[in-house]
Amino acid sequence: MGRPAKGTRPIVDPSLTATFWRELMGESEPLQRDQFLWLTIHLVQKMGLAQFTVSRVAKMLGYSVAMVNHLFGSRDGLIAECAQVVHRKYAQEVVDDTESAVRTPRARLEAHIRSRYERGRLLRGWSQVLNYPFYSFESPEIAYARAGSSVNDSYGRNLLYLTQLVLDVRAGHVSDIPLSPDEFPRNAIAIDKVAFLHAVTIATTTAGAVMWIPGRIDNGADTPEMLNLVPTMIESQLRLLVDTIPAR
User: Fold this and answer.
1) CA distance 151 to 145
2) Which residues lie closer than 8 Å to 195 by C-beta, 6 or more apart?
3) Residue 213: its H or E element
4) Any idea which fold 84-243 has?
5) Domain ranges of the chain
6) Which fold has domain 18-72?
7) DSSP labels for 149-165?
8) pTM as predicted
9) Cα angle at 208 between 244 and 241, to 5 degrees?
10) What does the pLDDT look like over 232-242, one tens digit per residue?
11) pLDDT tens digits for 164-222?
């Protein structure tokens, strides 16, 4: 299983202090499995999926790659579970930001879109998960088998929530109707095809921009002038996305 020799303790990277774990995941002494999970989330966020290796995370925790395979089945099994955690956390934060906005249809939708940009940019190396939840992996079949239904449910709830925000803008009022992922997407399309299509456009546009910004700008290769354009680009795109939604 890649454990240290009997009677010895794993030689852990000195950067993995109690403070590191507490700031990363809210616990000073996480369980072994959670250490692998959250350290992988941290490393992929910094370097991206292409540069991430399971040997690095295992070495930092004092184990061999065999321990990753024992706990998660494979590299893709580990990353798939991380993607599940990352997207669920991202989606909840976006909803929380939306619910904290001024309670008008437009203010809530604008808050939602801004949050998709801002929260998405913080994902950095995980940004491609917003676009390609399974085809980012070496083996999509392994990733889907490991976390497919959970990730699909998260995406479904996220898009259904966004569809309701667009429906509210079209109707001119804020809705408190509870939404079930079981009703998506058939009922969303049946209720208002235009609203659903606008929601899909917002979702794909913001996810694409979030993936582009870290890859083209936040890597430091661009000039300060380019960096200064990012907020303007986001606000301009936001207005275009909302202003094109027709009233019923």
Assistant:
1) 11
2) 163, 166, 167, 170, 188, 245
3) helix 193-216
4) Tetracycline Repressor; domain 2 (1.10.357)
5) 18-72, 84-243
6) Arc Repressor Mutant, subunit A (1.10.10)
7) HHHHHHHHHHHHHHHHH
8) 0.82
9) 10
10) 888 999 999 99
11) 999 999 999 998 766 666 666 677 778 899 999 999 999 989 988 887 765 544 444 55
